[in-house]
């Protein structure tokens, strides 16, 4: 691989620009394709389509185009986790999710909760969650989890998340809390089918007790949802 | 600020860039195909420098030693190669995958240009 291509890939990663490394096997000169941009001239359209498809599936593949074997390796921007509520569970969850490769944003308008001391190095937004979600743009590579227990903060976030392509939407709270949440959202016009997307009470059932253990169960459920599709 | 997930110790491409900027020779090994059970999926990478230090993985630790050896040889002859590991490999590698799967790995130099 040419050093110039390698450094370009690193710049693309820093700029969160999806790129596909296209290598002729074995290891002959590679090209870089940008799957969500205009195909460059001189590149076989089948090769470009295969690169776009690999990026959408987030899977590296070997393909044959025009009798030539290629290895297509998409490098997508990180998945995102938007956490509503700068509460105790959010502290270990933001660190664990970052380790698992997520870009994490913690959203909470309450400045007493959302502090640098509690979330060192974590991106924080101190505004109303529905506004924050709308400005961040929730797409199919985004997970949203609400942790505040406060309908004033959680519900508007959930309404925005339910209208988005988020691959995961979870809400912390007991079975009872979740039942009343569903009733509120239903009265706001959401159907049972739409509400079936919600994971609540949030997390895999591993009998988690501490905030860090609850964070493990939430992150495990997000990954399960991502990988099982 | 670096999140833990992009710290160079966990990110082979970030580590490769650090080594390149230090003027070191760097090879990248990438899983290009797998068959059966295999711990790392295609696109998984291992960065290796000329001292034999490495970051990342192409298996669960089963074949990294052999891949590093091959990468160091490649730094001499500059020829990229595709290596096959597994139960029915054709190249008679001494190492294999305990899980019984097969994996094909591209080993290439990050070369000037």
List the main descriptive attributes of the protein structure presented here.
heterodimer; A: 229 residues; alpha/beta; Rossmann fold; 2 domains; 6-stranded parallel sheet; 4-stranded antiparallel sheet; 8 helices; 39% helix; elongated; B: 113 residues; alpha+beta; 5-stranded antiparallel sheet; 5 strands; 21% helix
Written description of the protein model:
The complex is a heterodimer of chains A (229) and B (113). Helices cover 39% and strands 21% of the residues of chain A. Chain A has 229 residues and is an alpha/beta fold. Chain A has 2 domains: 3-75, no CATH class; 80-228, Rossmann fold, CATH 3.40.50.720. Chain A has a 6-stranded parallel sheet, sandwiched between helices. Chain A has a 4-stranded antiparallel sheet with strand order 2-1-4-3, with helices on both faces. In chain A, helix 3 (90-99) crosses helix 8 (211-228) and helix 4 runs parallel beside helix 5 (151-162). The longest helix of chain A is centred in the last third of the chain and has 18 residues, at 211-228. Chain A is elongated, with a radius of gyration of 20 Å. The two termini of chain A are 33 Å apart. Chain B has 2 helices and 5 strands. Chain B has 113 residues and is an alpha+beta fold. Chain B has a 5-stranded antiparallel sheet with strand order 3-2-1-5-4, sandwiched between helices. Chain B has one domain (7-110). The mean pLDDT of chain B is 85. The A-B interface holds A 1-4, 6-7, 9-10, 13, 23, 25-28, 59-62, 71, 73-74, 78, 95, 98-104, 121 and B 1-5, 10, 13-14, 16-17, 20, 28, 30-33, 41-43, 80-82, 106-113.
Task: Summarize the topology.
The complex is a heterodimer of chains A (229) and B (113).
Chain A: H1 3-14, E1 19-24, E2 30-33, H2 45-57, E3 61-65, E4 68-75, E5 80-84, H3 90-99, E6 103-107, E7 123-125, H4 129-136, E8 142-146, H5 151-162, E9 168-171, H6 175-187, H7 192-195, E10 198-199, H8 211-228
Chain B: H1 12-21, E1 26-35, E2 45-49, E3 54-56, H2 64-77, E4 81-86, E5 102-109
Antiparallel strand pairs in B: 1-2, 1-5, 2-3, 4-5
């Amino acid at each position: 691989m040419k050093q110039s291509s390698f450094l370009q890939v690193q710049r693309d990663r820093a700029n969160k620009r999806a790129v596909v490394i296209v290598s002729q096997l074995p290891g002959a000169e590679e090209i870089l394709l940008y799957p969500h941009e205009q195909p460059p001239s001189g590149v076989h359209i089948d090769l470009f389509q295969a690169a776009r498809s690999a990026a959408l599936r987030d899977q590296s593949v070997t393909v044959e185009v025009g009798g030539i074997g290629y290895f297509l390796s998409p490098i997508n921007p990180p998945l995102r986790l938007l956490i509503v509520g700068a509460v105790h569970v959010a502290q270990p969850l933001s660190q664990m999710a970052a380790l698992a490769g997520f870009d994490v944003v913690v959203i909470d308008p309450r400045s007493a909760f959302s502090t640098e001391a509690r979330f060192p190095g974590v991106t924080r937004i101190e505004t109303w969650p529905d506004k924050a979600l709308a400005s961040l743009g929730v797409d199919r590579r985004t997970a949203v989890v609400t942790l505040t227990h406060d309908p004033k903060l959680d519900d508007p976030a959930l309404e925005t998340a339910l209208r988005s392509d988020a691959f995961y939407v979870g809400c912390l709270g007991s079975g009872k809390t979740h039942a009343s949440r569903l009733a509120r959202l239903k009265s706001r016009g959401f159907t049972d089918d739409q509400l079936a997307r919600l994971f609540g009470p949030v997390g895999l059932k591993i009998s988690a007790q501490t905030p860090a253990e609850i964070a493990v169960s939430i992150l495990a459920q997000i990954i399960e949802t991502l990988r099982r599709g | 600020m670096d999140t833990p997930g992009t710290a160079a110790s966990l990110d082979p491409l970030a580590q490769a860039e650090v080594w390149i900027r230090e003027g070191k020779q760097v090879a990248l090994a990438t899983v290009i195909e797998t068959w059966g059970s295999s711990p790392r999926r295609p696109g998984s990478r291992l960065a290796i420098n000329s001292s034999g230090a490495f970051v990342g993985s192409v298996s669960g630790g089963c074949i990294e030693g052999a891949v590093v050896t091959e990468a160091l040889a490649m730094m001499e002859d500059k020829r990229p190669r595709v290596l096959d590991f597994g139960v029915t490999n054709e190249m008679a590698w001494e190492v294999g995958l305990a899980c019984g799967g097969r994996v094909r790995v591209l080993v290439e130099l990050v070369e000037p240009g």
